[in-house]
Design a protein that fits this description.
The protein has 2 domains: 102 residues, Arc Repressor Mutant, subunit A (Orthogonal Bundle), CATH 1.10.10; 30 residues. The chain has 178 residues and is mainly alpha-helical. It has a 3-stranded antiparallel sheet with strand order 1-3-2. It has 7 helices and 3 strands, in the order αααβααββαα. The chain is globular and about 60 Å long. A hairpin with a 2-residue loop joins strand 2 and strand 3.
Length: 178
């Protein structure tokens, strides 16, 4: 018996739950497994975001704001300060201070709204784009590697699943008890 086999648990095949050929667990066990994985995902994403923000000399709320501004701009719908306050669950005054800080450092800039000159849209600045690229570029490669074995149909199901989970979490957040 080689040394590697001696330290491996006999039931540890290295297979992931749900791997091809595995028997399908009961629905309740699958849902419990999904919930557990989502909780783990949330925790690790929060830890990674906080660590990266710290390495960029950003407060966690600044990094969250940059992420929201970058995502909205990427999706073609730049945020206003009020929308950012709503998304981050911060007061308008807190967001104003946060945006002032990010604008002064070159992470974001204010763009007058072409439809309402009283409003400004928040845009990612050069420094903010550098931060976003440094974070999301490598993260995208890691995700691509993790998803490489999935078929197009599997990926479409994953997108639908994540959209449904995000929608349910958004609804849950709107209806949190006081």
């Amino acid at each position: 018996m080689d040394a590697e086999a001696a330290v491996t648990h006999p039931d540890d095949t290295g297979a992931r739950p749900g791997a091809p050929g595995d028997p399908t667990p009961p629905r309740e066990a699958l849902i419990g497994g999904i919930v557990g994985q989502l909780q783990g995902l949330s925790l690790v994403a929060d830890q990674i975001g906080a660590a990266f923000a710290s390495r960029q000399s950003l407060a966690k709320s600044d990094f969250r704001a940059l992420t929201a501004i970058h995502r909205a701009e990427r999706d073609g719908h730049p945020l206003t300060g009020g929308q950012l306050a709503h998304e981050l669950h911060l007061t308008p005054a807190a967001v104003s201070y946060l945006v002032d800080r990010l604008a002064e450092s070159g992470h974001v800039w204010r763009d007058p709204d072409p439809h309402d000159r009283r409003r400004v849209r928040l845009r990612i600045g050069e420094k903010g784009l550098e931060v976003a690229t440094a974070f999301f570029g490598p993260l995208r490669h890691i995700h691509e590697d993790a998803l490489a074995a999935y078929s197009t149909d599997d990926l479409a199901l994953c997108v639908r699943f994540l959209a449904d989970v995000n929608a349910s979490l958004t609804d849950f957040g709107r209806n949190l008890p006081e």
